[in-house]
TrEMBL record, chain A:
<feature type="domain" description="Solute-binding protein family 3/N-terminal">
    <location>
        <begin position="36"/>
        <end position="268"/>
    </location>
</feature>
<dbReference type="InterPro" id="IPR001638">
    <property type="entry name" value="Solute-binding_3/MltF_N"/>
</dbReference>
<dbReference type="Pfam" id="PF00497">
    <property type="entry name" value="SBP_bac_3"/>
</dbReference>
<feature type="signal peptide">
    <location>
        <begin position="1"/>
        <end position="20"/>
    </location>
</feature>
<protein>
    <submittedName>
        <fullName>Amino acid ABC transporter substrate-binding protein</fullName>
    </submittedName>
</protein>
<keyword id="KW-0732">Signal</keyword>
TrEMBL record, chain B:
<dbReference type="GO" id="GO:0006865">
    <property type="term" value="P:amino acid transport"/>
</dbReference>
<feature type="transmembrane region" description="Helical">
    <location>
        <begin position="75"/>
        <end position="103"/>
    </location>
</feature>
<dbReference type="InterPro" id="IPR035906">
    <property type="entry name" value="MetI-like_sf"/>
</dbReference>
<comment type="similarity">
    <text>Belongs to the binding-protein-dependent transport system permease family. HisMQ subfamily.</text>
</comment>
<dbReference type="InterPro" id="IPR043429">
    <property type="entry name" value="ArtM/GltK/GlnP/TcyL/YhdX-like"/>
</dbReference>
<keyword id="KW-1133">Transmembrane helix</keyword>
<feature type="transmembrane region" description="Helical">
    <location>
        <begin position="154"/>
        <end position="173"/>
    </location>
</feature>
Automatic annotation (TrEMBL), chain C:
<dbReference type="InterPro" id="IPR003439">
    <property type="entry name" value="ABC_transporter-like_ATP-bd"/>
</dbReference>
<dbReference type="InterPro" id="IPR027417">
    <property type="entry name" value="P-loop_NTPase"/>
</dbReference>
<comment type="similarity">
    <text>Belongs to the ABC transporter superfamily.</text>
</comment>
<keyword id="KW-0029">Amino-acid transport</keyword>
<dbReference type="GO" id="GO:0005524">
    <property type="term" value="F:ATP binding"/>
</dbReference>
<dbReference type="InterPro" id="IPR030679">
    <property type="entry name" value="ABC_ATPase_HisP-typ"/>
</dbReference>
<feature type="domain" description="ABC transporter">
    <location>
        <begin position="5"/>
        <end position="239"/>
    </location>
</feature>
Amino acid sequence: MKIVTSAITIACLAATGALAADHGACAAGKTLEEGMLTIATGNPAFYPWVLNDAPESGEGFEAAVAYAIAEAMGFAPEQVQWVRTSFDEAIQPGAKNFDFNMQQYSITEDRDRMVDFSLPYYSSAMAVLTTEGVVEETGATPEIAGMKDLRWGAMAGTTAMPILMDLIAPNSDPLLYGDNADVTAAMQAGQIDAALFDLPTALYLSAVVVDGGKILGQFPADRTESPDQFGLLMEEGSPLKECVDAAMTELTESGTLAAIEAQWLQDATGVPVIQ
Amino acid sequence: MTETHGTVSAAPAVRPTRRATYEARVRRRSTTVAALSTAAVLLAVVVLVPMAPGWEAVKRSFFDAEVFARTFPGLLNAFLLDIAIFAWCAPLIALTGLAIALCRDVRSPALFPLRMFGAVYTDIFRGLPVILVVYLIGFGIPGLGLPRPWNSPYIWGSLALILVYSAYVAEVIRSGIDSIHQSQRSAAASLGLSEADTMRYVVLPQALRNVMPANMNLLIALQKDVALLSFIGPVEIFRQAGVYKSLMANFTPYVGAALIFLAITIPATRYADYLLNRQRRRQR
Amino acid sequence: MTGKLSLRGVRKSFGDTEVIRGIDLDVGEGEMVCLIGASGSGKSTLLRCINLLEPVDDGTIRLDGVDIAEPGLDPRPVRRRIGIVFQSYNLFPHMTAAENAMLAPRRVHGRDRAALMGPVTALFRRFGLADRMDHYPDQLSGGQQQRVAIIRALAMEPEIMLFDEITSALDPELVGEVLDVLRQLHRDGMTMILATHEMGFARELADKVCFLDGGVILEQGPPSSLFSAPSQQRTRAFLSRVL
Ligand SMILES: Nc1ncnc2c1ncn2[C@@H]1O[C@H](COP(=O)(O)OP(=O)(O)OP(=O)(O)O)[C@@H](O)[C@H]1O
Ligand SMILES: [Mg+2]
């Protein structure tokens, strides 16, 4: 036991030492373009993950994480370039135009068969977005029993749908939409009462986009079953994965990741937990 | 009529004529040639495609048997919604299209506004992409503040399909009406039939029969465009396939959906062609 | 007395071309009048004017003394009383022979199918088509189709029948069966106007023959005098070409 531990310690020390001595060695020859790191984000990229749809600024949670990881891998900010992809482009077979893709991809076993994920950079709580009007009308409270009768919506491409069926199991079939804007349009048109989003997105939508928007409650990230964790998406069998994971471990252990989260994501302790 | 021709040529126990023997030989030869060339093409596809360097990746992404088995029942189930939407839209489209076509044919000056309405209607709805109409009507009208259940995306999405498709159907029917020779109207008028009766009993039955194949093609297009309703919420097969695709990061569910669509549209297309051919024979 | 039908100064133009240029014509009850003349002389147009398929520009058409050419008058009651049969039959192809004959009486006179069956069957039997009632037009020969077209017009029980070259689209051996129909009608006392190229038939049955030329009736009279001693040079020229 002792031997094993010390072996790991030595290995880690050696690794850090190597990183310190020769930043970027682990990524050498493994990126699309030598000496450059190509990162993909959505088109457009949404608040609060990327501010003003401008990832180059490093503002916004994912943009900031991206530059931190790049640095840990030995890339200076000017060695980072951005591309845009849709979800489908990220998973289609054939050569990719990015080293890793970052747009709130939840890590799931099914997806992992087809693509590679890094270690998670964020564990997302899920939150229920609704409107003041609905709360007044239906008397909805942050309790699962009372939420079953609501008319539910979600974004089609996300893991929100299985989580919704899993945690809430609504009485009528949920309606699904292609993007945030359509979900909120349906909510504004009174076609749905509530929608399930990751918490940061829900906070943003309720504060800025939906008239009279309200967060009914959250399912905390550390709930036992199917936690929703975001990872960087890479081509299946990507040679870069090891290097990215090492950087991610370093950022997590040094507390850098937590600091970035505190800076860019709103504190959600005020949101009631759904019973 | 046609049956009699069939029985005559198939009469048994008659020695084949020289011509019949010759034609049988030609037929046999062309069947053989067709079979050989089809086999060659299939062979090339089966052998060459897997030799492409990306084939393994494509196979995993598009033709994953396990994913297919897991998602196919769900897709079939979602397809029921497509069928339901189609089933209630199609008759309403037929009625609206007919009404609009008749509007465009009115001759009395008092009804000129009706005629103009028909023209404007078809111009507008044929000029817009279906998806745009689905969005505008599916979100726009309920957004005015209708109470439930009157703001349902099923109602307004269907209305969008009905508006667009009835514009096309109206044009098809109108061309059918125009194709009926003036002498038919003359004959009806000479018997003292009113304009309305002439339309209903003389012109329309012939016109509708003439445009049946064209309308069948519109029906097939409608069957596919029902999927556009998924943009405003309903989880029909196209959306369901998209959900499976993102959850599994695999395109196989789309292949499943395509197969289900084809299982419906290919027979329908064949049937439309059959109608068209019969039509041509009649008119000869 | 002017008789059943009486035209005075009837004129009709299509655009700038005047096709009927002042026609006077009297047809007595039960008479058969034949219109002859070169192609384009206006025979069809005149017939179409008489049952108001074409509105006349000027002049009067009196039916039993009442002017039916009055502009603005509803033409439908008149058309019920005056039947017309066209050169090209114009049967409704999507209906059987019997349905063709019953449509107008049902819709215009409001009779039901059962009540019509008797008289319509009688008409088909009378013209030798009893076994063709359930056939569609494209299952009938030209002569049979033309007879169905006549039956269709007769089923409305018209007072006058107009026939526009009804045999000229037929094979020669089919002409006879259609002319037989006309003979029967004449015997039964039907008032008829007939545009025709069948000079032999006109000579045999017509009470009066009118020679149309350039939209006017150049000469008219009983067939005996008009065919054997035409008074006009142009009539003579026409007759010498067709006889
Ligand atoms: N709807 C119409 N519009 C314009 N001109 C017409 C129309 N109908 C007939 N005409 C013209 O009127 C003239 C007389 O035509 P009509 O059909 O009455 O002649 P017809 O004596 O019946 O000839 P045919 O023996 O060839 O049938 C012709 O010059 C024809 O071109
Ligand atoms: Mg004529």
